[in-house]
Amino acid sequence: xxxxxxxxxxxxxxxxxxxxxxxxxxxxxxxxxxxxxxxxxxxxxxxxxxxxxxxxxxxxxxxxxxxxxxxxxxxxxxxxxxxxxxxxxxxxxxxxxxxxxxxxxxxxxxxxxxxxxxxxxxxxxxxxxxxxxxxxxxxxxxxxxxxxxxxxxxxxxxxxxxxxxxxxxxxxxxxxxxxxxxxxxxxxxxxxxxxxxxxxxxxxxxxxxxxxxxxxx
Length: 217
Hints:
Layout: H1 2-8, H2 11-27, H3 33-64, H4 68-90, E1 95-101, E2 105-107, E3 116-126, E4 132-143, E5 146-154, E6 159-161, E7 164-172, E8 179-186, H5 190-213
Antiparallel strand pairs: 1-8, 2-3, 3-4, 4-5, 6-7, 7-8
Helix pairs in contact: 2-3, 3-4, 4-5
């Protein structure tokens, strides 16, 4: 058992696991969905074992002798782990652009999003000279044909629903009414990426401080 833990905790194994993840991210769009899910699950389990063993080893070392550098090393590993796991769990990010009229419903399922969007109100705010100042769109979000939320969108103020963000991109007037251009993006796994980046930054700073000053907490 100790030999197995030692293998999972070794640097060569960690480098190998990360390398396989990188290759997977490059070629995953060419892999069919079912094998892709199986391979991603196996990678997830293997990477979890490697990360867990590394974190436990560094935590034990940290409790024995707490130093700034060791704490930074732990945060660095956690940051890398969160970013890679976010990629494995989230899969490829995608986006879609739609044009929608007032009271029109657009189903986004064929674009890979489990929702439909209905435009309730589309309007614009104008400057005194007549130039457009801001675009506004009020939308209803539907799942399985049922309204689940109402959102108000304007330029630089997107709407969020679960792990989906909807941005106001364009606006134009037409004989049949105003038309709004919306960009829909998947943000699955993004909170893990942000947390991982913060952990990486904090860990890097602590390691640099530990090397420079040799501070022991």
